[in-house]
Design brief:
twelve-stranded antiparallel beta sheet; alpha+beta; 11 helices
Amino acid sequence: MKKLLLLVAIAAGVAYAGAKWHLHYKVSESMDQLVVMASPFAKISYSGVRSTFGGELTVEGVKVDFNDFTDPLVIDRIGIDTDGFFSLLEMNDFISMQGSSMPDYFGFIIQNVRIPSNADYYRKAFAMLEEMEGREVPDDPALTCAGQYGLSPSFLEDLGYTTQVFSVRFSIEREVGGVLMHFESSSDEMWEATLDLQVTGEFAPGQVVSGSYRPRMKSLRLEYTDRSLNERIHRNCARRGLSDEEIITAQVETLKQVGMESGIEFDEYVLDPYVEFLKGKNTLVITAAPREPIALSQIDLYKPSDVPALLQLEASAY
């Protein structure tokens, strides 16, 4: 009996090692093809492929040297997350967005993307974004130092950030009657944020590709924690001669602008807790719990001032 168990264990180990080798080989082959395809635009290198029994599959030590630019883009690891190693072997249809259904759990991982704040490609990309969106520098110095103009290279330099290091994890988990979308992001010495979005209906990759996916939101919870960004903004504005009241007013106006760009006119149930957050609280939580699931694509059909009540938006700071 012991010999039989030993043989079974050895066979399982060999099968696992073989499956892992095949998986790494296929990913490396795909990466090598990507390197060749991208060669007219950038030189891409990576240190290796890694998988875990828990279901993560990542490409490690990615470096991108863009043609016509001198500064590199470095990513510690990028890949996917599943509910187990053997689920990785069944992901072809879903990853290619051709399947008619989704697995019970699937996620993306991007860890430690390192971008120098004054990188030449970042300056170029930010300038192109400004041009596409028709942005203009606000005349109000308070709005400028509060960041309404975005994370421009000069703004980051004013705040003391020489390098941006950010990470992102996104997952989709099947639930009864719908799916839970979970999003985590962070930027070193800036902020951390988590977003949980519950939607009704089955998530099918093919629907996403065709544009026919119409999720209806059941609930939303956003938790944002400051990791020195607010303090740096306050110092930067104070150096320019602005009072505490002017700084907070500018930051509130910036949030209002973000809301209006999304078709939402925030009311006191969000703005008042946000002011508390700006005055020294570390974390801001915003929740939405509409009485009935609402199609996200239809929110812009409502007046911006009606959307907070429609979504039952609330916030708290602690």
